[in-house]
User: Which sequence fits this backbone?
């Protein structure tokens, strides 16, 4: 089954807000076997939206709209759906009751009453997080229009709780889907391992940051073939040195899971990533159970004081070096009392490395860069009960890309290092 | 003049990559007086793209395409433009020469030769960063199609260097535009101050994070009226307590600018923001000149050891308190030797606050939350040569929103605090 997604809102075509809902919805629909054939972003223009709904319904079986369900005159999605479906708008008792509950004990502004209007025959979709009910309407020819607010957290709950359960029944024969996230191998290296697939099994390969994602799918009756294929690739890619996780697992979540299981604690020392490793980790609820601290030692003085890196070592080897990465990790582990420590030091482009790393005086060269140490050079250090290790990366791209990729690689390095260490068991 | 933007790429409708080019292009076109009427995202489907180009040309004067200019069979934009314009494709000598220069000294893969194909009458747009030349074609009726690659850094340079100069001449009379970024006031509070505007001056108001952006514009001959309006609002909003910066200035860039000017250094201590303040700061090249370090003291033990926050204070006041925020700032300043220090401690939702902050035993309550200290409570601390101050925030939203907003407010608090301090002059 194919669908189209229509995102409405003048802020989206005026560049004030970036549209992010469509790709989230697309990812939720894929496992149901529903593919997006098009995404259209339109301003709050009732005529254009009405026209686009009609055209989309002529092309596909299902149209999903986001935005335009608020109480103000800008919000025209209700009217547009009614016109496109040739149905009059009328107050829907259930939608009215939900609004009354939302405003219980307060006076409902007159404008909000409009939100109870639904095209005839439509069903309101419950919005637990806001005033705007969604709209679900079935039309002749097995066509469907679903409409949810554009506010991301309202949209997400309503797609998951209201739209997907209703769509699941209509999507036709379900497909068996298995996804693998592979870290530490290039797209080409992963692709080269996908050889002959069992009959009917399709695969897709995509890259997001350092993640190479493989998706295998087949008609539901071929579920076993899909699972066997995924298991086989997991083994092969693991032997090639990849870290293979199920689904779209996250490096930070995986770090948390493993450390909690091992009852181990972690400390981080960052230089060129400037807090990005800590930010990735602390996005995971419960991280305070395992993460003691991260020290963003941007200046050399900070590396010396906070992590007890030797001044001599910094002078001799430079801040971006095997020796300093190892010393930062060792120092972070000792000074924090954590079981494991991860350290990152590198040159992200103009001015990422600490001033102390500037050793060449060449004019016009990015701060921190030397002929032997180009922009993109990053050293990672790990310290655990079993000892200390370090490895280097050579990253390409602008400052932001290098900082982000370095943080991702650092977590991967931590996971790989702790896999070995956890067998030793720190406690 | 109105335009439409057509982004092509199966990865965009399959949810593997989020489309970000369109809003960037829209922002670049606005000062030329070119408005986007629609954004369409389509898979690599030559028929659908051809059809959409034709329809867009019937609606607006200019169509801008991104993506689909690569050398592989997936890349169908060239063919689609040729079909939509009823022009045959032929090798363009200048495009061929540019490819030859790109591959100088290497063998050009056969597939890349396709990239020199242009619809008859089209002009290749130079791509300094990749192999794919863009396409510029003028069609009857004053219509234009411009096509650039989808790779963001190639797209950006080509829009700025090739497309905008060509469009500038066709966009009709230019408009005078002035933007203000207001921090620390709500959208409603800012809006309330925009009263009668001079004749012909229009304004728009939008919100991104804690930034409220005002845009004033008028026909070019009314430039003075636009500038006077912006200056007047800047004064009024400043008096209301807002921090008003020109254009779309960035809090981290502004922090950097002011500290460099004052020759002052900064240290940061973060708890619930988990590295996000440091990450925002270190996104700015040259930050190593002023930022000594950021300590992400996630556990109470880390606050005690790294920042010398007293154990008694943590027990008595809790980690999320006026007293601890002030003590963290004071400790960060002292232990780092920086001129200024900023501290953040709060409850971002499940498990943001350090375990020591859990004082109620209520089951099912987010870690760190107590009846007096709800999720979203954040304390900010500042220490400088003139003393220490602290302030609290009450933020709404999910974990990610609270963490991000808290980091933005923290930078604003720092800027406001240093404005006073810098008059004292720390050195």
Assistant:
């Amino acid at each position: 089954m194919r669908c189209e997604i229509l995102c409405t809102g003048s802020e989206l075509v005026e560049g004030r807000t970036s549209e992010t809902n469509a790709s989230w919805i697309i990812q939720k629909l894929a496992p149901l076997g529903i593919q997006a054939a098009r995404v259209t972003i339109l301003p709050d223009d009732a005529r254009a939206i009405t026209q686009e709904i009609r055209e989309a319904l002529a092309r596909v079986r299902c149209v999903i709209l986001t935005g335009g369900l608020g109480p103000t005159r800008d919000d025209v999605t209700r009217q547009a759906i009614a016109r496109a479906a040739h149905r009059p708008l009328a107050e829907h008792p259930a939608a009215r009751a939900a609004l009354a509950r939302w405003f219980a004990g307060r006076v409902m502004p007159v404008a909000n009453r409009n939100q109870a209007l639904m095209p005839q025959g439509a069903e309101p979709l419950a919005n637990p997080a806001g005033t705007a009910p969604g709209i679900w309407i079935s039309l002749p020819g097995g066509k469907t229009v679903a409409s949810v607010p554009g506010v991301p957290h309202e949209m997400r709950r309503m797609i998951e709780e209201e739209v997907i359960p209703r769509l699941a029944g209509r999507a036709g024969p379900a497909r068996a889907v298995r996804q693998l996230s592979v870290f530490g191998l290039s797209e080409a290296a992963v692709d080269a391992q996908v050889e002959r697939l069992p009959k009917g099994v399709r695969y897709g390969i995509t890259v997001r940051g350092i993640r190479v994602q493989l998706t295998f799918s087949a008609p539901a009756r071929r579920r076993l073939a899909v699972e066997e294929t995924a298991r086989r690739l997991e083994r092969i890619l693991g032997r090639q040195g990849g870290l293979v996780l199920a689904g779209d697992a996250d490096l930070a979540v995986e770090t948390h899971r493993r450390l909690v299981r091992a009852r181990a604690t972690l400390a981080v020392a960052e230089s060129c990533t400037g807090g990005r490793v800590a930010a990735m980790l602390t996005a995971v609820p419960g991280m305070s159970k395992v993460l003691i601290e991260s020290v963003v030692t941007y200046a050399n003085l900070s590396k010396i004081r906070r992590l007890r890196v030797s001044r001599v070592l910094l002078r001799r080897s430079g801040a971006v070096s095997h020796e300093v990465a190892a010393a930062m990790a060792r120092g972070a582990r000792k000074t924090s009392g954590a079981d494991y420590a991860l350290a990152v030091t590198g040159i992200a482009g103009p001015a990422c490395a600490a001033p102390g790393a500037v050793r060449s005086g060449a004019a016009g060269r990015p701060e921190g860069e030397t002929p032997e140490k180009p922009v993109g050079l990053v050293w990672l250090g790990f310290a655990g009960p079993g000892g200390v290790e370090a490895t280097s990366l050579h990253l390409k791209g602008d400052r932001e890309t290098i900082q982000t990729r370095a943080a991702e690689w650092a977590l991967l390095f931590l996971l790989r290092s702790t896999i070995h260490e956890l067998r030793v068991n720190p406690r």
